[in-house]
Amino acid sequence: MNFKDVAIKSAKLAGKFVKEAFCNPDFSMDAKGKHDIVTSVDRSAEHLIIQNILKHFPTHSIHSEEFGDLDKGSPYTWYIDPLDGTSNFFTGNPYYAISIALVSYEKVIVGVVYVPVLDDVYFAEKGQGAYLNDKRIWVSKREKLADSFIASAYSSKETEMASGLKNVKRLSKISRRVVVNFAPSLDLCNVA
To answer: What is the pTM of this model?
Structure first.
């Protein structure tokens, strides 16, 4: 299997698990700070992704949101957010996604965002363009910020919240609209 196929398969494996948990909520939640949470679903989904990646590429390194780093000294590192939009998921909002990227020599070579509720797969490969469910997509040709939609988020750390909210306010005044849905990978796909 190639990198893209493994990334998509890993995201879909995790997505199936996450969607089932969303429809039948029986999971635990822990605080990850005052304004952030993690669920047992995040951890289990991440485990499924890591297992599948290492099955195909056992020498690759992993950087995952919940478990941290598995540094194997490889030129390839997988970056995993097993449940982007955990707060949405936890509160019954279906706006969440699974996000996986592969980096080699500090360059992203594959990126996948999977939306389980819609069964949508956004993916891009270096030099091959970006796609939504095998249909090529492009960023718009808008050149003016005033005509553009912007995806934004801000940190859950109190020391950084004020500046993040200030940026959202500033961007709101100079753009068509700022989208803040607390699932940044999905926001970016939708804006693109």
So the answer is: 0.89
* Burial grade of 79 (CB within 10 A; 0-12, 13-18, 19 or more): middle
d(CA 25, CA 19): 10
CA distance 88 to 105: 34
Contacts 24+ apart (CB under 8 A), 61-69: 66/38, 66/42, 67/43
- pLDDT in the model for residue 142: 83
Characterize the bridge pairing of strands 76-84 and 135-137. Answer: unpaired
Q: What are phi and psi of 151, to 5 degrees?
A: -95, 135
Q: pLDDT by residue (tens digit) across 154-172?
A: 777 778 888 888 988 999 9
The two structure tokens encoding residue 6: 């493994």
- Are the CB atoms for 45 and 53 separated by under 8 Å? no
- pLDDT tens-digit readout, 84-133: 999 899 989 999 999 999 999 999 999 999 999 999 999 999 999 999 99
Q: Break the chain into its structural domains and give their ranges.
A: 3-137, 145-191
Query: How do beta strands 97-104 and 107-115 pair?
Result: antiparallel
d(CA 129, CA 107): 15
Q: Does domain 3-137 bear CATH number 3.30.540.10?
A: yes
